Amino acid sequence: MMIRLAAMADLDRLYEIEVQNFGQKEALPRETLAVHIQNIKTSFLVYEKENRILAYIEGPVVPERTLVDRNFYEAKDFSEKTGGYISITSLSVAPEAQKRGLATILLDELKQVAIQDGREGINLTCHDYLIGFYEKQGFKLLGPSSSTYAGEKWFDMLWENSR
Questions:
Q1: Does residue 156 have a pLDDT over 80?
Q2: Where are the beta strands (DSSP E) in the chain?
């Protein structure tokens, strides 16, 4: 098992997992994932076992405390600046690897990146049925999100770096 930064060679597998989990409506477009791989310097992590990607987590470092929709499309990464937040735009586990704790492992690894890099925290949006999962991971519910991504109703979640 290895957790590493994403590379352009991973794009096809990452997009396959993205669509399997989110469907065409909510999935990040393949071109967007490619831009994220190119632009996100410290917070696009893949979980790989036996040379096969089973899960990934990604999102840019941004100044905003809550996720804004442009992060899904632009992935302008502020990782060269101090502070800020990692804004998760996708956390996805391949169907054959679900229910094995990989999402928790990747969230824990991303928290370590946030701590190491001096980030103020990690933010994300999720559907209401995932609020409990993220609360178990140390995230706080901030309330309904202003995000309109994919025409869905989202909730803002925040993990704050206390170190």
A1: yes
A2: 2-5, 44-49, 52-58, 61-62, 85-87, 90-93, 121-126, 140-144, 155-160
